[in-house]
Specification:
By secondary structure, this protein is an alpha/beta fold. Among the domains are: about 80 residues, Arginyl tRNA synthetase N-terminal domain (Gyrase A, domain 2, 2-Layer Sandwich); about 180 residues, Isoleucyl-tRNA Synthetase, Domain 1 (Orthogonal Bundle), CATH 1.10.730.10. It has 20 helices and 12 strands. The strands form 4 sheets. A 4-stranded parallel sheet has the order 5-4-9-10, with helices on both faces. A 3-stranded antiparallel sheet has the order 1-3-2. It has a 3-stranded antiparallel sheet with strand order 6-7-8. Helix 12 links the parallel strand 9 and strand 10. It is globular. The mean pLDDT is about 95. It binds arginine. The site of arginine (ARG) has 10 residues, from helix 11 and strand 9.
Length: about 575
């Protein structure tokens, strides 16, 4: 839709000011009374061309008014150009929105690696894991939807001293069952016990370190213990991921890099990037301007670290997949680690692809009793169960308006959706507030509101006995609520692209909330089923388009929406 306008504007700008290829940066005005789209380009160019913004705007207005798609152009404020399009042009542009409701064909090219979730094994997923898990999944979904080849990677924390600790704990306080027979909760309890007991018995720590070293050296007994624990944890993870609509292509974790750290340690020493630190350890030092503290890459006893495995991991990913981009979603606590990692790769003179450590704030709880106590995680499984229970209560409260006859399915869709949307609708760059009331509200920026709005649109289409209302090619006139709803629908593909490129899913969530509000306001004010033709057909088509956008958008955010509610 913007193309013809941009072309025309560029014709004007090149004729009058010899400028070419100007990005008009079209925006949708906040208020419908300021038109369908608007540009501030006259203000931006004023200095460069040495004319007042209003004079430049006048020239643009003259050119744009001559276009067939344009019904009106106005100068506003200090030099904004506000454009109203014809109903026909707006309707034609909706084709783009409808197209954005199906995934784009693969564009080919190098893959994008998105790494997220990355739990540490032998512990159940905690509520806080929702952040990286959901943010990562929705970013991966957005890339896939836009036609990128995506490798969804769960870099599981399946290596490290915690296995030594667990082996000691199972040996000391476990019963005579095989390691494979312990549940994840029992393993967690033993792990927590280790941390309690070590406060009074420091030798436990030494024993744990020794056990891990033995594991690293290939001790058969510890190796099979480790395999059992990994299997138990992965089975537990799989069930939760399924509930959350989260999936991975690979779950190569830290242990995978055991045999790949020697080579990078060697290279680092050869290139004098890894130098001797305290007690025979190896470290990387950074320039003063970088303000980064030294990076420990090998302990004095020869043991590798989290950092060593990440360096090896970078090398492996680059060599194996030649990705165009690597995204690693973590919470803010890992920021320094990744800055050091990237700097280390640079010192090693590796050519690394576009890289971002996509950060999220911390999870905070509106309900103080949910804040975790030391060593005690708030289990994700419990949180999701409670969410479904609370959704059941909400459904009971709204009993008279509920239409579905599968209450169980609705409650789980609503409960899980509420938690996921509750997180993804917040700016990941800030702390994420976990608030039951807000998440489950029927009329705020929440999954139930989104789900309800989708079901409402579907119900209108059911009553009209049409699932695919065709859009008329033109309308004589548009009501304000129709125009607003169309304007929002028209933004869908731009929003998808913006959310993908910035790696910020809440841009999409906010958009869907806006769309729900615009649709509900249209629905409340404008007769649809009782309208006469061609309005009836047109409004049904808008309703259909809204339902498709809501469903597509929600699913990109891992949320399911019901047809009836
Ligand atoms: N497993 C780590 C943790 O829970 C996060 C891993 C982040 N990814 C990475 N490539 N280091 O703290």
């Amino acid at each position: 839709m913007y193309e013809t306008l941009t072309e025309k504007a560029n014709d004007v700008l090149s004729e009058t000011f010899s400028l070419s290829n100007v990005d008009l940066d079209w925006r949708r005005p906040q208020e419908a009374m300021h038109g369908d789209i608007s540009t501030a380009i006259a203000l931006k160019l004023s200095k460069e061309v040495g004319q007042s913004p209003r004079d430049i705007a006048e020239k643009l207005i003259e050119g744009l008014s001559s276009l067939e798609d344009v019904s009106k152009v106005e100068l506003a404020g200090p030099g904004y150009v506000n454009v109203w399009l014809t109903p026909k042009a707006l309707i034609a542009a909706l084709a783009d929105t409808r197209e954005a409701c199906t995934a784009r064909v693969k564009r080919g090219g190098a893959p994008v690696i998105v790494e997220y979730s990355q739990p540490n094994i032998a512990k159940p997923l905690g509520a806080h894991h929702l952040l990286t898990t959901l943010i990562g999944q929705s970013i991966a979904n957005l890339y896939e939807h836009q036609g990128y080849d995506v490798i969804k990677w769960n870099y599981i924390g399946d290596w490290g001293t915690q296995f030594g600790k667990l082996a000691i704990a199972v040996g000391k306080w476990g019963d005579d069952r095989k390691a494979s027979e312990y549940s994840i909760d029992e393993l967690l309890a033993l792990y927590v016990r280790f941390h309690e007991e070590v406060e009074n018995d420091l030798t436990l720590d030494d024993a744990a370190r020794e056990a891990f070293l033995k594991l690293e050296e290939g001790d058969a007994h510890l190796q099979s213990f480790w395999e059992d624990i990994v299997r138990t944890t992965k089975a537990d993870l799989a069930a939760l991921y399924e509930t959350l609509h989260v999936s991975f292509d690979l779950d190569l974790g830290e242990s995978f890099y055991q045999d790949k750290t020697d080579a990078v340690l060697h290279e680092g020493r050869e290139k004098h990037v890894f130098t001797e630190g305290e007690g025979g350890s190896l470290i990387v030092q950074f320039s003063e301007e970088s303000h980064l503290p030294p990076y420990l890459v090998q302990k004095g006893d020869g043991a590798t670290l989290y950092s060593t495995r990440d360096i090896a991991q970078m090398r492996y990913r680059i060599d194996t997949y030649h990705p165009q981009e690597i995204l690693i979603v973590t919470d803010i606590a890992q920021k320094l680690h990744f800055e050091q990692l990237v700097e280390t790769c640079k010192q090693l003179q590796w050519k690394i692809p576009a890289f971002e450590n996509v950060l999220s704030g911390r999870m905070r709880f509106a309900d103080k009793s949910m804040s975790t106590r030391k060593g005690n995680v708030l289990k994700l499984k419990d949180v999701l169960e409670e969410a479904v229970r609370r959704a059941e209560e909400k459904i009971a409260e709204h009993e008279e308006s509920i239409q579905t006859n599968d209450l169980g399915a609705l409650a789980s869709m609503m409960g899980v959706g509420a938690v996921s949307y509750g997180i993804l609708s917040q700016n990941r760059k800030q702390d994420i507030i976990f608030d039951w009331e807000k998440m489950l509200s029927f009329d705020g920026n929440s999954a139930p509101y989104l789900q309800y709005t989708h079901a409402r649109a579907k119900s209108v289409l059911r009553k009209a006995e049409t699932e695919h209302a065709d859009m008329p090619a033109d309308m004589a006139d548009l009501m304000e609520k129709e125009r607003v709803l169309m304007g929002t629908l028209l933004e869908f593909s731009r929003v998808l692209e913006e959310a993908r490129a910035s790696h910020i899913p809440h841009i999409l969530a906010n958009y869907l909330f806006q769309l729900c509000q615009d649709f509900n306001s249209f629905y409340n004010d404008t007769p649809i089923l009782k309208a006469t033709e061609p309005e009836r057909q047109f409004r049904l088509a808008l309703t259909h388009c809204t339902a498709s956008v809501l469903k597509t958008g929600a699913e990109l955010l891992t949320i399911s929406v019901p047809d009836r509610m």
